[in-house]
Structures are given as structure tokens and as C-alpha cells.
Design brief:
The chain is α+β, with helices and mostly antiparallel strands. It is built from four helices and nine strands. A six-stranded antiparallel β-sheet has the order 1-2-3-9-8-5. Strands 4-6-7 form a three-stranded antiparallel β-sheet. A hairpin with a 4-residue loop joins β1 and β2. The protein starts with 7 loop residues before the first strand and ends with a helix.
Amino acid sequence: MSNPQQLRYSKEHEWLSDVVDGVATVGITEHAANALGDVVYVQLPEVGDTVTAGESCGELESTKSVSDLYAPVTGEIVEANQDVVDDPSLVNTAPFEGGWLFKVRLAGEPDDLLSADEYTAFTAG
């Protein structure tokens, strides 16, 4: 399992893309997708919602369990991935590409996110 080097990661297993014009893309990691099993339902925050780093902002339901989705950063939701709502299996098949979850306009610089190498070590521990 490889974690793309250009992304940053939370200890709740979300990833965050590079920030472009104040906006970053958020998804869950391949590690999290594999742990969940087959994702069958995705509830995402709505456009315009404010999310707070470390707090629940949605839910992922799999054939095994229901898990909270945590915001890795604080900010305003500017886009939710309707493709994932319509086809939750994208979270499993393409967690770093088409399976992204939402885009957020950051309210500040994210802290306590891990590099790819730090996240790999964290999940191996």
C-alpha cells in the first residue's frame, strides 16, 4: 500500500491535497478504505457547511460497520463529490483519485498533519 507523497494525512485516516487558492481536497486513505471493507453508503457535509478539524463531518457505511468521517482541517465546504454519493465503491477502488470526498476552503494553516512517510509509520505501528 503506498501513500502519495504530495498529500498530508490525519491520524483519523483522511488525506488532504495541496492547497490551491485556499482550497484543498479531502478523502480517506487506502488503509482506511481497506479496513472499512466495501463502502455502501457515504454521507458528506453540504456545500456551505463549516467543518472543524478533528470533528465528525459525515459518515461512511460499509458491509462491516459505520464509521464517522472526520475533518482534517477547519474551513467551509465548497464542493462535495456527488460521484461518491452515487457510487460509494469509488472510496474503495480509487481512494486517492475519483473517490475523494469533499473540497474545503481552509480557515487557517492545518497543523498536526502527517507526511506520507509519517503516516505509513503510524499505520504500521
